[in-house]
Amino acid sequence: MRKILVTGGAGFIGSHLVDILMNRREEVHVFDNLSAGSLENVRQWLDKPNFTFINGDLLSSVDLEKLKIERFHTIFHLAANPEVKLGSTDPTIHFQQNIAATYNLLELMRKAESRPTLVFTSTSTVYGEASKIPTPEDYAPLKPISTYGASKLACEALISAYAYTYGFKAVIYRLANIVGSRSRHGVIFDFIQKLKTNPEELEILGDGTQTKSYLHVSDCAEAIFLGLKKSSEQVEIFNIGSEDQTDVKTIAKIVIEEMELKNVKFRFTGGVDGGKGWKGDVKNMLLDISKIGRLGWKPKHNSKQAITKTVKELTAETLNA
């Protein structure tokens, strides 16, 4: 039984990783301030002897004292603020909750007697508006157009430098739009909430032609564990996404169909910078996933299947709440 730390483990993706780790009978420690996550996501494990929940914030020196980094075999670092849109109004949030939090964790690792492996969830937005689609991991230069993407790229750079300087292994995943049960942000969740409020009209940010890759969280988790197991470099970077794309208007139609609504009127905001949903929104994204594909991973769901499955899961969660 290995000791595993999951920062942000009560959140969307983090809690799905926790489920897998617990089913593997690892000793799992979740460190989460519950600002975005929920105890409900890990409630089934709270009374298990191999599970520990620590209510803590990576920005708090008092909370950081609760962690004894050297006891962990692997650290999955998912604690972050996931809202891309926030950066256009308050960039401080991404600086503090993404960059500063990651720096504090890396400092703990630097001072520890042993060197755990670090797994970090980054984002496709580090590429900015890439001219090469699908976009491979070695695409350059990286020019993010949102403070969220910039903060994640800064975290990648810090992790790489610390790993090489202080001698630990790091696996970095640049994720496409991950969707699925327990998600509480993003276009699918937003559409469901809007339609519950007003089932006759749906506001769509931008012009509806924003086209991106959507991957179900179950496929994402599978890729994360496979990449960790088979990565060979001291600092390894993998893209994780689907093999296709879907536009926002199509997502709206899927959500409406799954919610069994009729005659819903679309109201497009028009957006900014050529129809984007907000300042910093990447309008066209598709990752080249051939690198992790060569390790034997292939998504089980395409974008439309992932979206349809997610709508079913999120509406079921609402009914059972």
Describe the structure.
It is a single chain. This protein has 321 residues and is α/β, with parallel strands linked by helices. It has nine helices and 13 strands. The protein has two domains: 201 residues, 3-Layer(aba) Sandwich (Rossmann fold); 95 residues, UDP-galactose 4-epimerase, domain 1, CATH 3.90.25. Helices cover 36% and strands 18% of the residues.
Topology record:
Layout: E1 3-7, H1 12-23, E2 27-32, E3 51-55, H2 61-64, E4 74-77, H3 91-111, E5 117-123, H4 147-166, E6 170-175, E7 177-179, H5 187-197, E8 201-204, E9 211-212, E10 214-216, H6 217-230, E11 235-240, E12 246-247, H7 248-258, E13 265-268, H8 290-293, H9 303-320
Parallel strand pairs: 1-2, 1-4, 2-3, 4-5, 5-6, 6-11, 7-10, 8-13
Antiparallel strand pairs: 9-12
Radius of gyration: 19 Å
List the strand order in the largest sheet.
3-2-1-4-5-6-11
| Succession of helices and strands | EHEEHEHEHEEHEEEHEEHEHH
Write down how many β-strands occur, each being a DSSP E stretch of 2 or more residues. Answer: 13
Distance between the termini: 34 Å
Task: Spell out the key features of this protein.
321 residues, alpha/beta, Rossmann fold, UDP-galactose 4-epimerase, domain 1, 2 domains, seven-stranded parallel sheet
Summarize the structure.
With 321 residues, the chain is of the alpha/beta class.
